[in-house]
Amino acid sequence: MPMAGTSIFDLGATGVERILETAQSVLETGFSTIVKHMHTLRVVGTFLHNAPAYERAVAQATAARLYSSHVDLSIHRDYALSDDEILSEIAMASSATDLLLTSYTDPQTFGDGRRLTEKLPSVVGKPMISMADDIYAHQSALAELASVRYNLDRIESRRIVICWGFGSRFVLPRTPHSLLILGAMLGAEMRVAAPPGFSLVRRAVREARRRAKTTSIVIEEVDSFEGAFEDADAVFALNWGRLDNFNHPERNAEDASQFKDWFLTENMLPKNCLFATEPPVQDDLIAGGELLQSNRNVTPTWLSRRVAVLAASILHVIQNSEVDIPAALV
Fold it and tell me: What is the pLDDT of residue 3?
């Protein structure tokens, strides 16, 4: 039976804000207030395929905080499976759990991981949450928004800058895509600063404009580093690769070599502006040591925010799961 509430975007600003409010409560007072609602959550399963490095640790830590067991049900095959075979494996995995956490990226074709993820609610018979695919990483983005809400009291009307930064790891821009859309949904003024050739996918930009809380929300794109942060309340920097190089990642280093000056220092940001990136942090590549060691850098709380946001998301799908109609967030 198809699941209810399968898109996080369809929760609207009110639903997303409720998840962030719960996450903030967890960060401030601990997990006890939500554990009492988790009496049906005994087994948390993960199904991870080409997942970002920390996803398994986030899932394990969250399950432990909720007094649940974690079991990894990922496919480990030395041969390729068809979409139908993958969906069958995931359906089988979900039948052994009370909740399934997924992260699926197809290494061959950009977008296929998202396409398969969108099919999951039709085959998974338990509450489920997608932590990431090749286009979106909603959980990571919510964790960044949680830091804005926690440290600056509100997200609405704040200026959030998503910035490409120089480095050598070249991850997919899934967190920037989700952050752009969810930030606009919550009423933040969004700016994307990226060198020519490193822009975000147009699909995400269009979705952000469509989902913006009001028609007056500014969603700006600039290809200059100079002056991109003067009015920022929060800056999220990430060293993502060119989408044109998805199947040729070796080209990213050469393409990025001309943008070594996309490097953040403390004096570039306004006095009370937050800074964040995703671990592992490349000191003196994406940002200078003085900025990384300052109080405005919230990256050291990244893992605790990820766990709090995932716990809040689990509470949402558990509470919204009715008999025979489990909820999903993808």
Answer: 61
The CB density around residue 265, as the number of other CB atoms within 10 Å, is 11
C-alpha distances in angstroms, 142 versus 8, 38, 183, 202? 11, 21, 9, 21
pLDDT in tens, 98-113: 999 999 999 889 999 9
Q: What is the identity of the amino acid at 328?
A: A
Contacts of 274 (CB under 8 A, 6+ apart): 147, 148, 151, 152, 233, 234, 235, 296, 297, 298
* Distance, CA of 189 to CA of 248 (rounded, Å): 34
Region 135-150: what's the mean pLDDT?
98
Q: How many CB atoms lie within 10 A of CB 15?
A: 17
**Residue 128 in contact with residue 118, Cβ under 8 Å?**
no
292-327 tens-digit pLDDT: 999 999 999 999 999 999 999 999 999 988 755 679
Q: How many CA atoms lie within 13 A of 227 on its CB side?
A: 4
Mean pLDDT, rounded, for 13-35: 96
Write the DSSP assignment of 213-233 as a string of letters: SSTT--EEEE---TTTTTT-S
| pTM for this prediction | 0.96
Q: Which residue is listed with tokens 């997200």?
A: 155
The two tokens of residue 166 are: 């120089």
Looking at this protein, which amino acid is placed at residue 307? V
Query: Which strand (E) or helix (H) includes residue 45?
Result: strand 43-49
Task: Determine the 3-state secondary structure of 49 from DSSP.
Answer: strand
**What pLDDT sits at residue 78?**
62
What is the overall mean pLDDT for the chain?
A: 94
